[in-house]
Amino acid sequence: NLFPPQHLDDDTISGSNWITENNVQRSLSQTTKTTRKPYCGYKQQTLSKREQAEQELLLAAIQWPNPPDGKIAFVQSTDPAHSDFVLVKPSGFLKVGDQLEVLVRMKDFQGKPKQYGGDYLQARIHSPQLKAGATGRIVDCRNGFYKVFFTLLWPGEVKVSVSLVHPSEAIQVLLRLREERPDRVYFKSSFKSGRYSETTECNVCLPGDVPVCNFTDLYTGEPWFCYKPRKLSCASRISHAKGGYQKGLLTQEESRFFQSDVNIKRPILSSGPDSVIVKPKAFT
């Protein structure tokens, strides 16, 4: 659900703006100018107790920490250039199989410590000479600090790298878009009978009071719908592909949270040593 930001803030296009008949484009509705009424068939499904419990577990697993109430100014958002990390007890005797702990400290663009969590971090250990690498387990302390735990799997010099993928403020924008614009990534299907063909938009939710074809999986219950062709039946579908991205969904202030050279996939540097020497595991 974390889509590349370059698809979110360009000139506006409409995913529900097209339906083709023999390659002639026709407008269904101006989705960026009209009130949206999603058609979400999965909201009409009745779940068993087991399915309900599984759904609650999945939703809990993807729950993301929320920042303080109210809008956060860009200068108060996470700045990877001001943030840093330190190795906990880097000079200790470490051997293969031991655990290395790293403490990450996040700050904003004013250099002030962050007081809440929710940043999307990636951390790894690696040895380029050996072409070896492993990821770490990140624990969000929810106060601007993060603990990262690595299991040391090979001997020699092991370097630590930490990077900010998305600041917490950007995550909140993406979560909002997930809830408010489930159609921001749209798909299309082609229908054909003889020489006549039509192409319509498909998605989990479709806006407008337009007839739809229900392609919900009968075994899993996974919902999927396409706008019904004007002249062809739903059974005449022959292909399916991604249509594109809805654009122009970010405000000017929100777009500042998605700057590839500023706060997306940017390294966080160490304020001290960024590597350790790992000894081979002793056998008795």
Secondary-structure element order, N to C:
EEEHEEEEEEEEHEEEEEEHEE
Mind telling me the CATH class of the domain at 74-173 and 260-279? Mainly Beta
* Poorly predicted regions: 1-39
Helix content: 10-25%
Q: CATH-wise, what's the superfamily of the domain at 74-173 and 260-279?
A: Immunoglobulins
Outline the biggest β-sheet. 10 strands, mixed
CATH topology term of the domain at 74-173 and 260-279: Immunoglobulin-like
Beta percentage is 35-45%
CATH architecture of the domain at 74-173 and 260-279: Sandwich
Global shape: elongated
- Secondary structure tally: strands: 19
- CA(first)-CA(last) distance: 49 Å
Q: Can you count the helices? A: 3
The helix/strand class is mainly beta
Mean pLDDT: 83
User: Nearest-angstrom radius of gyration?
Assistant: 24 Å
